[in-house]
Amino acid sequence: MLDRETPFPGAARIGLTGAPGAGKSTLLDALVRELRPKGETVAIVAVDPSSRTTGGALLGDRVRVRSGASDPGVFIRSMAARDQLGGLAESAWSAVVILAAAFDRVFVETVGVGQSESDVAALVDTLVYVATPGTGDALQFMKAGILEYPDVFIVNKADFGAAAKRTASELRGSINLGDRGVSHTEAAVILTSASAGEGIDELVSAIDAHRQKLIDDDALRERRLRGREIQLLGALERRYGAFGIEQFGGRRALREHVRQDDSVSAFALLARLGLEIEEALRKSH
Amino acid sequence: MTAPENARRDSPWMFRTYSGHSSARASNELYRTNLSKGQTGLSVAFDLPTQTGYDSDHPLARGEVGKVGVPISHVDDMTALFKELPLEKMNTSMTINANAAWLLALYVATAERTGADPKKLQGTTQNDIVKEYLSRGTYIFPPEASLKLISDIVAYTVDSIPKWNPTNICSYHLQEAGATPVQEIAYALATAISVLDLVRSREDVPEAAIPRIVGRISFFLNSGIRFIEEICKVRAMAELWDEITLERYGVQDAKLRRFRYGVQVNSLGLTEAQPENNVIRIVLEALGVTLSKNARCRALQLPAWNEALGLPRPWDQQWSLRIQQILAFESDLLEHEDIFDGSHVIVEKTGELKQAARRELDVVLEMGGTVAAIENAYMKQRLVESQTARARAIEDAEITVVGVNAYTNAEPSPLMDGQWILKVDESAEQEQVERLVEFRSKRNRADVESAVQNLDDVLRNGGNIMPASIRAAHAGVTTGEWADVLRSLYGEFRAPTGVVATEGSGGSQATANTRDRVHRLADTLGRPLKILIGKPGLDGHSNGAEQIAVKARNVGMEVVYDGIRLEPGEIAASARDEGVHLVGLSILSGSHCVLVIDVLDKLRELGLGDLPVVVGGIIPEEDANKLCQAGVRRVYTPKDFDLTRIMSDIVDVVEEPSPAA
Ligand code: B12
Ligand SMILES: Nc1nc2c(ncn2[C@@H]2O[C@H](COP(=O)(O)OP(=O)(O)OP(=O)(O)O)[C@@H](O)[C@H]2O)c(=O)[nH]1
Ligand SMILES: [Mg+2]
Fold first, then answer.
1. How far from B21 is each of A96, B50, B64, B623, CA to CA, in Å?
2. In which element (H, E) is residue B584 found?
3. Do the domain assignments include residue A23?
4. Most distant pair of Cα atoms in chain A: their distance
5. Is A4 within the bounds of a domain?
């Protein structure tokens, strides 16, 4: 596996989240059509919930990305979110890290179920929330708790006309109402029609602008580190449990380790910290 | 026994046989023989490239040309198809949908070329796109654009070809995709409403024409083995149609509100095991739509005894035609008034179906009609659910299928000695392509270009597609060129598969055991068993792939299924990207030899030569052997109805060491 991650900042990592049927896959298809002719390579990780009782999962139908089926510059991997309830698969994280080394952009599609936004946010540089016309008013957006993490908001199916405009202004209103960090206040709300390929260039510009701002503010490195921290801690916790983490000296100590070793690849670090925890566990016996 | 001399007999329904294969010329010969045997109407089957808007030499047409129907790439093909047939007197039914406007244009152009008056043409273009997304699979463009095309044909024919049935709303295919009688009624009526609402909203259609247009809408139904329920279904549909056309469209003339329908009886229930039993099923199903005089079909086509084995030969189709003739001419079926009038059993059952269908119809209408209910996959998901329930009931022997899950001990069938299906001449494709290339070289380039330009202009301005298409037909535009104009204007559509991750973990003990095996295998593999179900080529038969996908998930596998009509290269690339442990291909169109080998080659090119591949579908035994020699690990056919056993077999395949290549 990869020894080192790609040079910073490397590939753009972009999350797409939103209710089932919001048009995320159709948007990805449109994005591929927009980006490929410009020579950019694109990887897509589509995460679907798996059945809790059988462990089985139906993947694929959600990935309606056809433009690149036999184009080596497009890669699509669908996976089941089997690790956490409604959350992201640990494997999604590894996939993003690995694919970021080989593609210009890595997109992650997940079904938004409220709390999973924070998971995707930790995985990507830019999180895009996909709303659809008539999905709710300001209050509902706030209640759903979807306003905190996304960096770019879009209302897809803009071909529905007035209803889409209404939703966009509701959304704009609630973003300002919401308790968001300063850097978020100017979060964009863009109207797109994925099926007609409209608003896609704007979406790309908004994504790029957001990322550029992070780079200019020197915030991208911090965001990546935070994401890595969350993922590594999560992975170690799932593997060794709270007890294991305790033996190592607790979450804080672990976090510090992760921070210090920011030049080491995440996988190497995961392996090393794992060994150290195992060592600590052995000693505790 | 003979009928009493003075008995008044109703005239029989129209006898049809759905047919066509190889080439226009071969099909023309077939039609002429069939007509000479007493068949009274023609029912044209087109091959899949024609139905999906590709010329015979398009890469996607490979292996499909002339297989399941006749290839029609241009006006010369159409002219050859109807050579020496009196078009003004014929009643021609064409199973054509996404590009119905084009095939109708070719038919009109053929009439004009041969001196027949288009106004006198009689027949039907199937032209129902909704059931293509839900079941039949030969759609091209997105729903809204497709419905606009349908309304163009309706608006055009009402005055220009007044005896034409511009659209034949199909519930037949819904039942074949698993629909219950209620779903069949509700979704077909919802489709008719979408078409009529759209036609009514057109500026070029005067309000006064609506009743006449309503009167030209016909239906195409299924008739299953539960034939008493089917009688009630048809009566329910007729009553509902009468109500809807009066209430919604204000049609006052009762004659124009009549529910006119043709039928193909159920084929889904025809079995590969003990295939001779199918004849009995077909007879019973035919009764369902002929017994009740007030709800009798206008036209009937019957499948053949060897339906589940492959394409029928002329003799097989003749046997089915004889069923109709015996029913109509030997029995006393046509001598009586409606024998069910006054039966409280029939009345009650009919009422129940009507009520339930109204409810389901309202669900779809409230959602925004069929376009919305296709895009959000509502209807397709309901069909897959029903099909899943049916598959499980057969597997668990909750419903009896003689010869399949009961009474399986049988004598070998003498019908299956030697050859028992039609073999399409493999040279047909090559010859068709040669004719096409020659045709292209002979036409007037300028005429073609200006006709194509005109078609594009008309469509961009929202005009009616028919006149521009007829002009294009005369100019020598081809099926693929016509469709390309529309593709670039409307885009192409991929319909939702309807296979959703609804919670479902039940099933028999065998299912639970298989699930355990799948979980244990996951431990060995280090991650869950992940498989890809692929449908290469133009084949639209999705039932098998869907049921395998649902079952695989149910036993704990991760399943990637992207729907119908993918290129072999797309499937191989997807297998690589997705990192699956096994690829399962499903092909029922008869082009398995070409397509499976293509997928195997593509996998090898990607360095996945060791990835196990299994295949399912209508695969004759000798082909199955061929495929296994080419590296396929297992081949499944309809007789393998036990899905749990297939799953456990798949676990075996993944566990087996790969045979050193
Ligand atoms: C239902 C049906 C349809 C439905 C399909 C609905 C749908 N969405 O699936 C409708 C009415 C739409 C239809 C249309 C047509 N049909 Co049709 N259809 C059938 C029919 C009656 C049953 C098929 C079926 O669904 N069976 C139920 C499923 C569950 O079974 P199955 O697919 O065989 O799958 C089982 C196994 O094969 C295996 N399996 C299958 N796939 C896979 C995959 C994997 C990975 C595994 C492990 C196992 C596996 O497991 C399953 C479990 O038992 C068959 C005849 C028959 N009785 O078999 C004809 C048949 C397949 N159709 C046929 C034809 C010609 C057509 C048309 C092309 C006609 C035309 N000219 O227009 C059209 C167009 C379809 C298209 N776009 O391609 C021919 C094909 C001829 C050939 N192969 O030589 C057949 C054989 C009928 C015939 N004798 O003429 N059809
Ligand atoms: N009218 C309209 N329909 C759209 C648009 N974008 C997507 N759709 C349709 O919405 C439906 C769902 O689209 P998908 O792209 O599968 O949505 P998704 O968000 O990926 O859905 P899940 O993966 O199931 O969560 C499909 O029928 C699309 O054709 C749009 O811009 N306008
Ligand atoms: Mg999706």
1. 50, 12, 11, 20
2. strand B582-587
3. yes
4. 66
5. no
Question: Tens of pLDDT along B331-366?
Answer: 999 999 999 999 999 999 999 999 999 999 999 999
Domain with CATH 3.20.20.240 in chain B: 88-333+343-407
User: Which sign does the torsion angle of CA B450, B483, B63, B95 carry?
Assistant: negative
Phi–psi pair at A43, nearest 5 degrees: -115, 145
What distance in Å separates the CA atoms of residue B82 and residue B296, rounded to the nearest whole number? 29
Tell me what pLDDT residue A148 has: 78
The answer to whether B107 and B94 have CB atoms below 8 angstroms apart is yes
Q: Are residues A263 and A165 in the same domain?
A: no
Query: Is B515 in CB contact (< 8 Å) with chain A?
Result: yes
pLDDT at residue B519 greater than cutoff 80: yes
Long-range Cβ pairs for the range B447-450 (8 Å, 24+):
B447/B475, B447/B476, B448/B475, B448/B476, B448/B477, B448/B481, B450/B475
pLDDT at B504 over 70: no
Q: Which chain A residue shows the shortest CA-CA distance from B505?
A: A54
Q: Where in chain B is the domain with CATH 3.40.50.280?
A: 509-655
In the structure encoding, which two tokens stand for residue A269, read together?
């670090």
**Is the same domain home to A17 and A106?**
yes
Amino acid at B598: D
pTM: 0.92
Which 3 state secondary structure label does DSSP give B539? coil
Please tell me the predicted confidence (pLDDT) of residue B347: 97
CA angle in degrees (0–180, nearest 5) for A29-A171-A181: 100
In this structure, the answer to whether residues A157 and A210 fall within a common structural domain is: yes
Residue A2 lies in a domain: no
CATH 3.40.50.880 applies to domain B88-333+343-407: no
Residues A191 and A203 placed together within one structural domain of the fold:
yes
Identify the residue whose tokens are 């409810």: B359
Residue B234 three-state SS: helix
Is residue A211 domain-shared with residue A229, that is, in the same domain? Answer: no
CATH for B509-655 (3.90.700.10, 3.40.50.280, 3.30.43.10, 3.20.190.10): 3.40.50.280
* Residue A220, min C-alpha distance to chain B (Å): 29
Q: Give me the residue from B519, B549, B579 closest to A77, CB to CB.
A: B579
Task: Kindly give the number of the ligand 1 atom that is closest to the alpha carbon of B639.
Answer: 53
Select from A200, A217, A234 the last residue of a domain: A217
Mark whether A264 and A124 lie in a shared domain: no
Residues A229/A230/A234/A240 CA torsion (nearest 10 deg): 30
Nearest-CA neighbor of B112 among B66, B160, B71?
B160
Angle at which helices B592-605 and B621-629 pack, to 10 degrees? 10
| Long-range Cβ contacts of B401-407 (<8 Å, 24+ apart) | B401/B269, B401/B271, B401/B641, B402/B274, B402/B277, B403/B271, B403/B273, B403/B274, B403/B277, B404/B271, B404/B273, B404/B639, B404/B641, B405/B641
A118 HSE (CA, 13 A, CB side): 8
Cα–Cα distance between A24 and A43 in angstroms, integer? 15
Active-site residue, selected from the candidate residues B77, B128, B539, B598 = B539
Residues A114 and A250 in one domain: no
- Helix, strand, or coil here: B316? helix
What residues are in contact with ligand 2 under a 6 Å CB criterion? A 18, 20-26, 62, 64, 111, 156-157, 159, 193-195; B 375
Q: Whose CA is nearest to atom 7 of ligand 2?
A: A23
Q: Is B119 among the catalytic positions?
A: no
> How many domains is chain A partitioned into structurally?
2
Ligand 1 center from residue B307 Cα (angstroms): 10
The residue behind tokens 């191989």 is B572
Tens of pLDDT, residue by residue over B583-607, are 999 999 999 999 999 999 999 999 9
Q: How many CA atoms lie within 13 A of B36 on its CB side?
A: 8
Option in A60, A70, A91 nearest B560 (CB): A60
